[in-house]
Amino acid sequence: MYLTPKHILLAGATGLTGELLLDRLLNEPTIERVLAPSRKPLAEHPHLDNPVGEPAVFLPQLSGPVDVAFCCLGTTIKQAGSEQAFRAVDHDMVVAFGKRAREMGARHLIVVSAIGADPKSSVFYTRVKGEMEQSLRAQGWPQLTLARPSVLIGERVEERPVEKIAATLSKLVPGKYHGIEACELARALWRLALEEDNGVRVVESDELRKLGK
């Protein structure tokens, strides 16, 4: 079953995937409003509502109807500065965003997680992603979509040499571990938003690539 969401809540609009998704959302004729809070101002658009500030401040103040919420928040341990700071973004902030989106009436939450996400993983990064997914499941969403992309391929504002090398190598790997273009992921996220279902759906990277073609 397909639906036509008109009111969107988006977190992470200044990131690689979030920026591409925002552009797509603002060009969808059926969408009336995109509420996209961010630390830095976004380019103005008639259908964009862009509260600017720290998440702890603006999250409780967000208002208005929401049909679908997208969460594209994410960082790296190197960029965050420590494992604790990484967890604060990739777990705590994502979970807080989900809670607020649910309070605002969103029925469907779509979250960019990561391949291999597992709360029992011995790898800190994938363990945090798995714990984040676990926390979102506990929020009781009518519809929760967990997107697990492999290495993202695309031009970032900030230089990430290690990720650039990983992205190049990921193009040689088959199946779900093959790298995915950020533009493909953004298209896939929008297509997933149009599907109305119940329960939790985990979408692995190979399926995301197919949806994003």
Automatic annotation (TrEMBL):
It comes from the Bacteria. SMART domains: Semialdhyde_dh. InterPro entries: NAD(P)-bd_dom_sf, Semialdehyde_DH_NAD-bd. Residues 7-104 form the Semialdehyde dehydrogenase NAD-binding domain. SUPFAM superfamilies: NAD(P)-binding Rossmann-fold domains (SSF51735). PANTHER family: OXIDOREDUCTASE HTATIP2. This is Oxidoreductase. The lineage of its organism: Bacteria, Pseudomonadati, Pseudomonadota, Gammaproteobacteria, Pseudomonadales.
